[in-house]
Write a structure and sequence with these properties.
Helix content: 10-25%
Number of strands: 12
Number of domains: 2
Number of helices: 10
Largest sheet: 7 strands, mixed
CATH superfamily of the largest domain: Oxidoreductase, molybdopterin-binding domain
Oligomer: single chain
Order of helices and strands: HHHHEEHEEHEEHEEEEHEEHH
Bound molecules: ligand MTE
Structural class: alpha+beta
Amino acid sequence: MLIRRPARWAIPERDATPETVFLNRRQLLGGAGGLLAAGLATPAFARTEPEAPIAPELYPAKRNDAYKIDREITEKRLATTYNNYYEFGSHKDIWERAQDLPLRPWTVKIDGMVGKPMELDVEDLIRKLPIEERLYRHRCVEAWSMTVPWSGFALKELVKLAEPQAGAKFLRMETFMMPDIARGQRQRWYPWPYIEGLRMDEATHDLAFMATGVYGKPIVKQMGAPLRLAAPWKYGFKSIKGIVKFTFTDQQPKSYWEQLIGNEYGFYANVNPEVDHPRWSQAKERPLGASSDVPTLLYNGYAEEVAGLYAGMDPKKLFY
Ligand code: MTE
C-alpha cells in the first residue's frame, strides 16, 4: 500500500510443479527436517499429512449468473502469487510464507450487539450457509486490478444468523493474531490486528460477499483463507483476510489503514476514478497480466447496485 512495486509475473517453478505438491512443499520439507533431526527417517520416507482443506466438498460451487462481468478472468497463477497481506510482509511476494498459516483449529467469534453471540469452528459456519460462485472485480487502491471467481456466501446470511439488535449500526471484522507465524505482526509500528468495517446496510447489501473459495476450490491462504471479505465496489484494502471475529456495534470501527495513515485511507473507501489518492491518480488501473491500463469505473463498475446506499452523503467522505 505504501510502495508500488512492479509486477513479478513469472514464477517458472509454479508452472512446472503440480499445485498440490507445490502448496504442500513447505509442510513436506518441515516434516522431513524434524524426522531427520530426530534420526527417525530417511528422506525417502519423510512425509507429514498435509492439512486437510476446509469443507472441500462444497467446491466447485454453482455459479450465480447474476454476478457475471464483462472482463476476462485473471489467470489463477497471477492472482495467487501477487498479493497484499501485511501479516506476511509489506510486499507482493508473500504467497509462500502464507502457507505456514494453520487453518485448523480456526474458531470464528460473533459478538457485540447480537441476539445470538456464538463461537464456532469455521468449517461448521461455512457448512451452515448457502455457498455459490460469483465473478467479481477487485480494484486495489494501488491501481492494479483483477477479476476473480470467488465462492462463498452473502455476508447478509451471516448477519441473519447473528440476529443483530436494532441498535447495531456497523459490522467490525478482525483478522487473526499469530505473530509467531505471521512475521509481519512482529512489526510493532503497524496497528495489529488488521481491522475492517462496514455499515450495516453495506454488510447486508447483496454484493457484500464472504469468500471461502476461489477458482473453484477452497480459498488459498495468500488470498485470505479461510474467510475473506469481497466488497467489490470498495478499494481492495476493505476486503479483510483471515477473519476470526465479527462484532456488531453502534460505533464506526477504525480500520487498520485509517489508524495507520488516516489522511490517505478512510472508512468508506468507495472506488472513484475522479478522486485521486493524495499521492497518485485513481483514473486508471492495470489488470494483472495486462500490458496497458484501462479506465477505472465509479464504484468499480457497481454504481447501479450501490450508489443508493450513499444518497445525500458528503461525497468527500465516500471516497476516502
Ligand atoms: N487483509 C489483511 N488481513 N491484511 C492485509 O494486508 N490487504 C488488503 C486486502 N485484505 C490485507 C487484507 C489489500 S490492500 C488488498 S488490495 C487485498 O487484500 C488483496 O487481496 P489479494 O492478495 O487476494 O489480491
